[in-house]
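hey m, so remember when u said the tokens were messed up on ur end? i reran from scratch. heres the input so u can diff it against urs
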Amino acid sequence: MTEVSTARRSRITPEREAELYEAVLELLREVGYDALTMDAVAARTRSSKATLYRQWGGKAELVAKAVRHTKPGGLGFDAIDTGSLKGDLHALTMRSDDCTMEQNSALMRGLAMAVHGNPDLLRAFRAHLIEPETAEFRRVVQRAVDRGEVRPDNPAIEFMIHMMLGAFAARTMIDELPPTQAFLLSYIDAVVLPALGVHD
């Protein structure tokens, strides 16, 4: 049964999958999560609804994976290892230009509201975005611990993901400006690194 399911799922090429994800994100920006339907996705992408449900199971899973797809390298931090925590965090920040950050910030604000009222979307976001990203940041910090840059008992380690996501989200709310590379790099140097005990 698993082999049949895998064979069915593998019919969509990576290129076609990327097209579908882009279409989903376009629709999300146009109508928001609540008004987005699998019928609309099928029409926009010239797909059958049956194919969409077979591949993703439902709207929440499809949206979470589409958002994950927008992350540079699909969240893969493995390619980044500059030899210092500052270098790694700066390199991670530089993977998205200011225009992409502004688009993603607007998208995430809309989805944040939807997540609170939709348990399926919350589960999908936890599985495909929050947990993988938290694990990636932990690996980056663990490398810094292994290099002796960060003390293993530093309490700020547990709040790494909160610090990074908090800056991204709060920039618009507090300053009424989108997050930018310059803002996030300054934030990393002024807040994140000192909290972890890293000083130039």
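this time it looks ok to me. Residues 1-10 have pLDDT under 50 and may be disordered. if urs says something different then somethings off w ur setup not the seq
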